[in-house]
Write a structure and sequence with these properties.
This protein is mostly helical. It has 13 helices and two strands; from the N terminus they run βααααααβααααααα. It is elongated and about 95 Å long.
Amino acid sequence: MQSWLVRVWDLGVRSFHWGLVASVTVCAITGFLVGRQALDLHWIAGAVIAALLLFRLIWGFCGTGYAQFRSFPLSVSAIRQHLAQALAGQPERHLGHNPLGAVMVYALMTVLAAIVLTGVVALGGVAKQGPLAFAMPFADGRSVLSIHNLLAYALLAMVAVHLGGVVFESRRSRENLARAMVTGDKQALPGETAPPRAGRPQAAAMIAAGLAMVVVPGIVLLAHRPGHGVPPATLDAAYVRECGACHMVYPPSLAPAATWNAMMDGLDEHFGENASLAPAVAAPMRAWLAANSAEHWDTRAAVTLRLVDPVTPLRITAAPAWLRFHRSIPASVFAAKPVGVKGNCAACHSDAATGRFDPQNIEVPE
C-alpha cells in the first residue's frame, strides 16, 4: 500500500514536547535526588514548565491542524469505541492523537499545572521565596508541599504509562512515534491528509507577549515583597556586641522565649563561663530577645526549633529539628577546623545571621 510522509506535529508542538521532557527531568532530579540545595534550579525548571503550559494553551488555539485542541477533543464515546476496536485487534488509525492519547495529553497538562501551582504555594510558605512568600504561612506551605510531592509521584507514574503506550503503539502500528515527534512527520496512507488548518504564529506571539508583559513584572514585584513572618535581618547592637565577642550571634528566632529567658537568668553559669551583664544592658536585651523569639516568626527554622530538647533546653543544637536537619552530616565535619563546633551555623549557612537559612545558602566545608 502506497504511503507518503505528511507533516503532523509542527515546530510548536515538538518544541513544547521536548522542552517539557527536559524541564520535567530537571525537576525530577533536583526534587528527588539532589535535595534542597538545588532549589534554585528546581524552581527555574518549574517556571519553564509553567511557561511551556501557557504556550501550549495558546498554541492549542493558534497552532496548525493537529496542534489544535479541537483535533483531539475529549469524548467518552470515542474512547469507548477506540477501546472496543483495540480489544478486537482492529483499532482505527489516527494521524494525530488517538482518543486515549488525548486523555493522556489533557491529564498530563492538568497534573503539571497542579504541580506548578502547589510548588509556588509551597515555595512561598516553606522557603519564604517566590511571588506568594508575602502571604503564605509556613503551616499551609508545608501541607501543600505534601500534595506537591504526591502529584510529582503521580506524574512519574503517568509518564511511565505514557512511555509504555508509545512503545506498545509503535510496535502495533509499526511506526516510530518517538521519531515522529522529532521530525514532525508520519506516514500517511491513502485517504489520510493533514488537516488544512494553518497556524497563526503571529497571533500566538502577540498573545504570549501580552501575557509576559503583565505576568512577569507582576511576579517580580510580588516576589520582592517581604516574606510572611520573616524576621528582620538587623540585630540588636548590644546583643551583637556582647554575645558576638565570644561566639556566633544567634538570631533570636531560633529559640522560644522560654529558652532566652532561661539563658539570661543563667548568664553567670553560661555553658561553663561567667557571661554576666550589667542590669542596664541585660534588661533591654532580655526584652528584645523575648519580642523576637521563635514564637513571633514563621520561617521554617523558627517554627521547627520552637520544640526544644527537654534535657538540654538551652542548646539549639540539641533540638529535635536541628538533629533531624543535620543527621546526614558526619561528626568529623563539625570537628574540622572550618566549623569547630556544632553551633557554628555561619560556617555552613551564609545567611545564618538573618535567621532565614535558605537552602541555596548552604555550603558544607570540606
